[in-house]
Every structure is written in C-alpha cells, then in structure tokens.
Amino acid sequence: MSPSTTFHRAAVMPAPGMPIEVRTYPAPTIEEGAVLLRTIASEVCGTDVHLHHGRLAGVPYPLIPGHVSIGEVERVRGGVYDVNGLPISRGDVVTFLDVHGTCNACWYCLVAKATTRCPHRKVYGITYGAEPAPGLAGGWSERIYLRPNTRIIRLAHGVTPDAWIGAGCGLPTAVHAIELARIGLGSKVLIQGSGPVGLSACALALLSGAGWVGVIGAPELRLAAARSFGADWTMDVTQTTDKERLRAVRHATGGHGPDIVIEASGNPQAVPEGCELVRDAGRYVIVGQYTDHGDVGINPHSHINKKHLEIRGCWGSDFSHVYRAMEILVRFGSRIDWSSLITKRYGLEEVGAALADVEAQRVVKAVIVP
Amino acid sequence: MSPSTTFHRAAVMPAPGMPIEVRTYPAPTIEEGAVLLRTIASEVCGTDVHLHHGRLAGVPYPLIPGHVSIGEVERVRGGVYDVNGLPISRGDVVTFLDVHGTCNACWYCLVAKATTRCPHRKVYGITYGAEPAPGLAGGWSERIYLRPNTRIIRLAHGVTPDAWIGAGCGLPTAVHAIELARIGLGSKVLIQGSGPVGLSACALALLSGAGWVGVIGAPELRLAAARSFGADWTMDVTQTTDKERLRAVRHATGGHGPDIVIEASGNPQAVPEGCELVRDAGRYVIVGQYTDHGDVGINPHSHINKKHLEIRGCWGSDFSHVYRAMEILVRFGSRIDWSSLITKRYGLEEVGAALADVEAQRVVKAVIVP
Amino acid sequence: MSPSTTFHRAAVMPAPGMPIEVRTYPAPTIEEGAVLLRTIASEVCGTDVHLHHGRLAGVPYPLIPGHVSIGEVERVRGGVYDVNGLPISRGDVVTFLDVHGTCNACWYCLVAKATTRCPHRKVYGITYGAEPAPGLAGGWSERIYLRPNTRIIRLAHGVTPDAWIGAGCGLPTAVHAIELARIGLGSKVLIQGSGPVGLSACALALLSGAGWVGVIGAPELRLAAARSFGADWTMDVTQTTDKERLRAVRHATGGHGPDIVIEASGNPQAVPEGCELVRDAGRYVIVGQYTDHGDVGINPHSHINKKHLEIRGCWGSDFSHVYRAMEILVRFGSRIDWSSLITKRYGLEEVGAALADVEAQRVVKAVIVP
Amino acid sequence: MSPSTTFHRAAVMPAPGMPIEVRTYPAPTIEEGAVLLRTIASEVCGTDVHLHHGRLAGVPYPLIPGHVSIGEVERVRGGVYDVNGLPISRGDVVTFLDVHGTCNACWYCLVAKATTRCPHRKVYGITYGAEPAPGLAGGWSERIYLRPNTRIIRLAHGVTPDAWIGAGCGLPTAVHAIELARIGLGSKVLIQGSGPVGLSACALALLSGAGWVGVIGAPELRLAAARSFGADWTMDVTQTTDKERLRAVRHATGGHGPDIVIEASGNPQAVPEGCELVRDAGRYVIVGQYTDHGDVGINPHSHINKKHLEIRGCWGSDFSHVYRAMEILVRFGSRIDWSSLITKRYGLEEVGAALADVEAQRVVKAVIVP
Description:
4 copies of one chain form a homotetramer. By secondary structure, chain A is of the alpha/beta class. Helix content of chain A is 27%, strand content 23%. Chain A is built from 11 helices and 18 strands. Chain A has helices spanning 46-53, 107-110, 161-167, 170-181, 196-207, 220-229, 242-252, 270-277, 300-305, 319-332, 351-359; strands spanning 7-12, 21-26, 35-44, 69-76, 93-96, 99-100, 122-123, 143-146, 152-154, 188-192, 212-217, 233-236, 260-263, 283-286, 296-298, 310-313, 342-346, 365-368. In chain A, a hairpin with an 8-residue loop joins strand 1 (7-12) and strand 2. In chain A, helix 1 (46-53) crosses helix 11 (351-359), helix 4 (170-181) crosses helix 5 and helix 5 (196-207) runs parallel beside helix 6. The longest helix of chain A is centred in the C-terminal third of the chain and has 14 residues, at 319-332. In chain A, 60% of the residues are buried. The model of chain A has no long low-confidence stretch (mean pLDDT 96). Chains in contact: A-B, A-C, A-D, B-C, B-D, C-D. The interface between B and C is medium-sized, with 18 and 18 residues.
C-alpha cells in the first residue's frame, strides 16, 4: 500500500449480536466495467435489524450493510452502460439493483425463468461481505464499489435522492408484489403491515386504480403515513382482535371482503388472518415473510380449498422492479411523497441508534448519510 | 295418492351416524323443463363417507346420496336441451352436473365470475335432501328427478356408463384442478393422494404432456391403478417418512423438485409436505381438502415467500368441467381405462357395505346399481 | 284497449335511411319480474348513426334506439333484485346492462365462457325492435320496459345521471378493453380514437397508473376533452400523416413505442397503423371496429410475427363491466368528470338533429331527454 | 499460418443468388469459454432458401448457413457448463441454441422481458457470417465454432442425432408457439402449414392433449407425415378453395370451428383465412411469417373485433424452447418419430441440390452431413 492510498470509512457489523463499528478500508482497485460511488445516502431496512441479530443464513460477516443506496459516480473504468445503452459517467447520480450476479445461464434463469431464485445471486450489503477485496459492498460506507455487470440506473430528472431513499427497497419489493396482485380498476385491496413495503404497496394499489385500500398495521405514526398516501381505512393491529378486524374489514368492503390482500407484515400470524380476510376466490400475495419467524397454523379446507383462493409468494426483485420504481417516482412523485417516510438521518457513528430506532418502530424510515 | 301411483326405492341416510335405510318414495310430478331418469349407476365417493359421519355443514338429512350418476331418460316435460341446443329425449342415456341453481344473477356469478362460490348453488345428493318434494335428488335411487335448468349431457358415443361412473366426480374435479395447474409440455407433476381425484389428476397430467408424473398415496391397490394409467413413479405414504419422500422426489425430478404439485389427499398434513416438495417458483394446486380435518402448521417464510410459490385452491366444478370430462373419455378412453377403477358394485341394500369398503380403502371406486 | 290506457311517446327509426318519427305506444302489461322505467336520459352513440344508415345486420326496424339509459322505477312486478340481493323498488333511479338474454345454457356461455358471443343475446335499442309487444325496448322513449332478468343496477350514491349518461356505453366498453389491456404501473398507453370509447379508455388508462397516455383523434373538441382528463399527449389525425404520427409517438415514448395501444377509432386504417405504433412484444387491443367498414392491408411478417405482438379483439360488455363502471364513477368521479362530455341535450322531436350532430362530430356526447 | 494449420471445408453462400461454393477455412483459435464441434449433421430449413434468394435483411454474406446442428465436442477451452452446471467435455455430443449474444442488459431483456426482441441477438448461420474470424459460424461445415456463452445442451440419453435434426429448428419454434397457444385438454387445434414448424406444432398439440388436431397444408408427402404423427384430419391447400376448407373445418369441429389455430405456413393469405377458421373468442398464434411476403387484406370488424379474437405473434426461440424440445424427444420420442421427417441427406457438395429440393417441397427435411 503506497503512502498515497485513500481510505474510506464504513459502518460494519463484525458478527451477529456485536456492536456496530466504524472501520476504515483502502480504496479498491477499479476493475474494467466497475464503478466507484461516493455514497449520498443508504437506507436502514428491517432486514438490517435481522442481520444484526444473525437471523439470516449465509451472511459473510463482517458486513457493511446497506442494500439500497444512492451515490455519485466518482470513478468508472471502461464502458459501463444503462439499459438504454447510455454510458454511466463520472458525476452521474445513480442507484443500482442490490442483487448482483444473476447468472442468465442456469436452469432457474433460462428454463424456469425464475431469476429471483437463481442460486448465483448475491446481494450488496447482505451476502457480499466487507471482506475479502474488493469490499465496500454495502451502502453504510463513504464509498460503494459496484462490480462489473451491476445493474445501474441514473436518478431520473425530478426525482430527489430523498424520494428514492425514502422509498428504499420497499418500493421495488412492492412493485413486484403489485405485479403479482394484478389489481383491476375498482378492486378492493387490503395491506397487512405498515412498514416500508406495506406503505409502498398501499401507494401502488392506490395508483393502480384500486377502489378501496385499507391498511392493518402499527404504530399510529405509520398508519398516519398510509392515510397521507390516501389509504381509505386503517386499523391498529395492536389495539384490536382478529375478530374485530375481520368484522371491520368485511363491513368496509361491502360484505365480501377485499378482492386482494397483500401481506407485508412479516408476522407469520398475519397469514391465517389474511386467508380469513380475503374474499372467496380472491388473491393473496405474501411478500412480507423475508425472515423465518416460525410456523403458523392454517386450515387448508376453509382457508384455501373451499375459499378457491390464489396465493402468490413473492421473493426478491429484479431490475425491472427498480426501473419501474424510478418511473413511478417520476410519474407520481407529486402525488405520493415517499421522502416523507424519512423520519431521521444518521451518520456512520450513529448506525447503532438507527438500528434500535427501526427495531422499536420509532421511525418509518431511517437513512444513513455517511 | 291414487292406487296407480308408482313408487321408487332409494337408499337413505336418515341422519348422521344412523344406518342406511332403503325407503320408498312416490314418483314425483314432473314440472315443465324437468326430467326423470331411471338410474343406471351412481358412484360412492369419499364425500359420502363424510356425509355419513355428519362432517359437512348444511346437509338436510334425510338424504339420498349419489351426486354423480348416469341414467336413462324415462320422462321429460317440455323442451329440455343440451348445450348444443339438441333436445333431451326419452331413452337418452345422460348424466348431469351435480351442482344446480348457480344463479347467474349474484355478485359472485356476474361480477367476481367465481361461479363455484355462488351462494345459491345446491348439489344433488348433498344439499338437496330426500324431502320435501320433489325429492329423488340423489343417485342411490331407482329414479332421479332432475329439476328444470339442471345441466344435462348425453353420454357420448363410445363412452360406456362404466367409464363415466368409474371416473365419477373425481374426473370433473381433476379437470378443474388441471386447468389451474397449467401443465406445460415436459412439466414434472407430482400428485399427492391416490383416491379417485388423485388418480384422475394423474391421468390428466399424463394426457397433458407432463414430462414426469409421480403419485404419493396408498394403499398399493390404488398406486397400482396409478401405474396402470402410466404414472412414472409411485410411493406408499404409509410406508415412508416425509424425509424419505422428499429425498426420493428430488432425486426423481433431477434435483429441483416437481414444477407442479397437486394435492388430492384430503389430509391437512399433505399441505406443508407439498410446499416442501414443489420446486422453487413452482405451482401447488390444493383440490383435496373438501372436508375440514383441522389446522396444520406451515412456515410462511420457507414454504411460500422465499419459495416464490403459487398456490391455487380449487373448489367445485362447473358444467365446463363435466363437458370436458366427457370429451376426454371420448378422446382418451382407449388410453386410460377409467372403468378399471370400479372395484365392486352394490345394490341399494348393500350401500352400508359400500360405505365401509370406501372408508377402509378396500376399493378404488364403489358403484351403486339401484 | 280500455279508455284509460296510458300512452308513451318514443322516437322511432321506421327503417334504414328514413327520417326519425315520434310515435306513441300504449303502456305495456308488466310481466312478473319486469320493471317499467320513466326515462331520465338516454345516450346517442355512434352505433345509432350506423343504425340509422342501416349498416348493422339483423336489426328489426322499426326501432326505438337508445341502449344506455337511466330512469326512475315507475312500476315493478314481483321481486326484482340487484346483484347484491337488494330489491329494486319504485322510485329507485337505475340503469341496466343493454344486453339481455345471455342464456347461461349454451356452449358459448357454459363451456367456452365467452358470454359476449352467446347467440341468444339481445340488445335493448338495437336488436329488440319497437314491435311486437312488449315494446318500449329503447331509451329514446318516455318509458323503457325492462323484461324479466334484465341486469339492473341502482345509480350509486354520489353519481349523477349526467355522469352516467356522459360516460354512456363508452365507459363499460372501455372497462372491458382495459381489462384485456392489462396495464401495469408505468405502462405507456396510446389510444387511437377520441370518441366516447377512446376518451373513456384514456381516462381508465390514467386511473390504472399508466406512465404515459397519448391520444390520436379528432376533432380538437375531443382532443381537448382528452387533455382535460389528463392525457399526456394528443395529436390530430386529420392534420398529420402516419409517418409524422409514428415519429412523434416514438419520440414521446422514449424510442420504443407504447407498450399498449388501444384502437377505439372504428377506422380500419387505424389497425395497420396501430401495429406500427405499438412497441415490439407489446399489446394491441382492438375495440373500436363495431361496424364493418371493409378490409385493410396488414403485413403479417412485420406487424405481427416479427413484432411478437399480442392482439386482443374486444367484443361487447357484460354486467361486470357495467358494475365496474359504476364503481369507477363513485371512486373517481371527482377526478374525471364524465358529465363534461355532454355537449348538448335533445328532446324526442330533436333526435334527427342529434344524429346529425353526432355524425358530424359537432358534439362529444349527445343526450336524449324524453 | 504455420505449415501444420488444419483446414475445414464448408458450404458457403457467397452472396444472394450466387451458387453455393465449398470453401476451406483454417481452424480457428479457441478463446476461453469457446468450443469447437465436429459437425455430425445440420439441417436445411426454409429460411435457408430465403437466405439464398437474399430475402432477409442484415445478412453478412458470405455465409455458412445451418443454424440447427449437432456435433461432437472436439475442443473446449476453459470451463464450459450446461444449465445444470455440468461441464461440457471433449467427446460430448451436443447441440446449441442458434441465437447467441442475447445481452441480459438492455431494456428489452431486463425490463420488457422480451428477450427474443433483444437488439443484440445474433444467429449462427444467419447473422454471423463466414468472415471475419473466428468464422465457422454455421453448421454446413466440417467444424462449428461456438463462441463463449453459447447455450449448449448435451444430446440426452436415448435421443439420436437423427431425431434432433429431423425435428430441426421447427421443434423449438413450435414449442414456443404451443406455449402461447395454451392448449387445454380437449381443445380443438388447427395447424395451417405442413412444413417442419407445422408438423412439430401438430405433434405438440397432440401431445398436449388436444381433442382434435387438423392440418391444412401440402404436398401430400407432408400431410401423410402429419397423419403418421396422429393428426385427426388433413386437407390439401392446393386442391381446395378457402370456402371448401371453411366448410370442412367447421364440420370437423362440431360447427364452432377450432378453439385454436396455429399459422405455420408463411403464406400471408393464410392469415385472413385463419381468422375465418378459428372459432369466436378463440386464439390464433401466428408463427410462420418469418419472412416478408407482402401485405394481405383482413377485416378488422369481422376477423378481430366482433370475433373477440386473441392473436399472438410468435418470434424466435430462447434456450428454454431448446431445452423443452430435448425433454420432449426424451419423453415422447417413441410416440412421435421426428427422425422420420428426414427425407434425404446431402454432402457439402450437394447443398445446392438440397436447397432446390427444399424449395420444391420434394423433401420434408433435408439434412447436411458434412
């Protein structure tokens, strides 16, 4: 390492359960096709809390978390292009799909066309660790190193970094869920969960022309955000029983129940309740169960078979969801203010506090500004 | 009642848990648009066992069971036509959709287009009781009275009554399930359950061009029937553990697991197992849970969300499924011998024995010949 | 006919090409299940112009046109219910599906499930003539006689007769087309035609979350209506060449062309142009060709095969489309003002002028107030 | 070039309309990830005739045609794997997707997910010319050079080279068309065209459980092949009028017409005829129009709108279609003998005769054995 080597600071999870540390890494060598970003902002999402508790398998600690981030291109080596064939250049403000390395060569990619189940996928900030080189693989860092073939997209004209980070990974995730939900004009849609995924799903259901959108969640801070987006109805899950919610939802939807329910709570108990709430021959999209919180009892007869129910599990996002998310912010940013979800900003030294605030649901969206 | 009144004998369930009785009913008055059939044969299905134990709600005992039947038209009043506009006439050998009274006027029929959830549906042999008049509403009877607007279909040329009754209600049910399963050429399909629905689903998967069809079930008599239909692989659920089945199915399907699993066992425990067995981003059709056998534990994270699984509950049949079933017997009757599923025939006095044989799985298909 | 018989006035097309006459008909006898409406308003649609020229086959002149109408229930005999099972009562303000008699018994209804192709369908104001009895089968009349099993729907709270009639048959038709169009959030949608169907399709595309909606049509009066609904882009088809339109649409949609094109112009020439305009692997819904205006040349190689194009012809509406239309007016009536499409109102004596104004496109929507 | 350089012979189209020449090329340098095949056989398809006449745009003559081929791996450099992750090794008998270079990085690949419209696609034997290096890009050659990232698949156990080449590019093309056709059990399917695509579509429709499969084509040699595959009905297009065919098809399909028509003839005139033949609310897959043979007249009203028709243009294949084709040969090779389509084999010097025989339809499938 020469005396002139530059160093970058990053917030690191050394191992599950260990306190966050700010560490310093040398600037990486830029490969052909790679990009170095100066981080503008990176989100804290519920997954980061789970990462801190060691609840995900296959995570190569030490880890620099931060899978959805925005930055300014500081260095780029060789030709790097966006999906429209336009070059990514120094000074561009960009974001990127956190998933990298979907192989386009395996049976899942080419035959099953289930690219979110490609076994070669890696995720910045989750399954790419802080080491070995090239490192700088997460957004809670002054710089982010984007390896060749990372799917990069410029922040569109009129979209602020705050809007993108306020939406965070919840928006592309919700775009994917909404795709599976196939909302028709006038459909009645219930969202279970009022975290970032639930709030974005609420917004997207409204933008899709739903005839009624309800949200069951907590705490009130988040339900208020749902109402500010335009939700027709909200109910606090911590203040009500499942029977009360069933009665209230039936009443609010004209007796039949919602045509579509989207589970975005992560609570296994939400699943049998969603099966109860959705109308007969309806559709139930389960997108919130990203972490294993154990089993739950369902009744196959009344919840699925007799109900003639369609259930769609929804795992991961691909680049199309990031691209659509950007289009949605351009188109509907004046109608839905995703930046309003940002409750608080934290420096690299404050990451521990950010995680605690997210876990305690004291914030809707916490943002790291390195 | 005049001295010349004709009487017809029928096997009746007087109430749940009570022995079957043979009772005698006067010939009904034929309304305009109605048809009286001289019964040729009627099936015993698993639902009849549940009816005998009183496991279904809303059944108006006393009941003449027998929802899939075949008969010869003895009397018809006024013009009664099939879907092609051809008149139903005396002497025709016909069958009919057991569901009657789907209203084509309610929200489920007209807006949701979920006609199998129409609240006005009635089912011959299940929710139409032996009384009051007009009665004769089930097939375990010398005559069956078909009310106006019953969907009647002639037994097609080349299709024997034995083929139709051997297929029984399992075939239209499987036609509906296969519709939801959307089997592509070469798809690998696993069937859970080897009763009449499972065996028909096995046959239909093969006829749809599946690349591999496996059946998990019991007893051996039924697994042998599956193999005689062409199943590539069978496994006895009573002789193996779930881990052994998982390993064996993975091995038989090239590692990924089947693209599609169809649950036709009625055992709640089959549901989490099916979620395990099906490949990532696959499809799971649940058609066997027609009776409530209680709750079961599933893991929403690994079974649905991370798996990116599509689950389709499948309730009931409509006339299209009966029509397609007839077409399938015409087309493929020489390839799949549904009449071979008939293990034994019973007269009206032997109905109790038939029910016992079905419950003990000593027969694949029991047929009542009044 | 007793001295006390009531008579109702109606505007009648005696035969193709003949001037409209106002004739008088006796009040009909109300059958069990039938309803008599006092007409509040009835629309004039482009089809009525074609009817006047005799361009439709199978029309039983003399005819009282007016297939979408709104009225107050004056008489009802027996129980008549809406899809939610609520009774239709005297004094209710209602509208109804113009299609009557879809049989729910033929192969198209029950097997193909293509109810808009049921050969038994009749249409008020088009294929039900002024004679024989019961008559009063169109809306350009003081009273409308709704036969048993007409699908009736109450005007929802907050929806004005003007909104419903301003939307007219164009709205349910567009609801059907939009269903086939499967617009995703951010989809770019081009509408060909700015008549009532095109304008409603424009509105519904916007409400469905389209990322861009363009309209090609004429005259300026209608394009202005499209813009008032929120269209992003309009172009006058009479002032531009097809090459200019292609260039402009490509430019406005980022180079690829719109993801979805909806043809609502009725001009055969629009079809090859739509095939050119839509992007590769896009979708083209053809809903405007309700009358035969002759053949047109297309290039199967470049327009369909190489383009990997999906084309969906869209014929007719069913009750679900009327029901959804009502829901849309309730939900989005404050955002899209369909009543603004009403340019002029005409009494029964002025129907000839109304037809002339519609044909000359001097009005967007002409309304008959009997 | 060293004295020890090896040379390979190939049949070359020097330019449109010029006679085929056998030329000699030096063995190429093998890049990392590339494979050199010793050609076992290569097909002649209708496209090759069009190439010879210069009817395709963007072809870089001189050209070594032959896009579907089979060969033995002679050399491989670095790790080359199949979709299951198994290495491709010297001595393996393999085939490959003729399309190369689908980028997985552009808007068509990542956002529209219309990979067959990726502008970066190249096709061996069509858009990769004989020059410049590395060359040997077509199958009418002693060796074929497979560039890195070519999608290679081993000939499955039990599948003969003759079966694969007899099926040729027609089979994957038909797999794609059948995917869009969504054939249900019992569907009635009509194929227009009896060339290799039409014959494979006929076979696949039968294997998918179609209730009736008819073929309109010529000459008799090919119709006989269709019948040997199991077609229920064939008609010689050169011996009948369109009216006769319409009458005959209606009759053979019970009056309604086929549920699904697949156009595989390449004749523009087939398109309006197919629109006539298909039943109302049916589906029409257009897969045969791979070359521009000019415009044709259709009637948008009666052919598309009133018919409520779904039309699906089908362009190109991707690797999933090749993979499914191999699975189909494994599964159904004993039922459908694709090798029987090979009428004649030709050496490299006989390629001109092969093209003439294909053009004159004297053969079903001509195979080049270099």
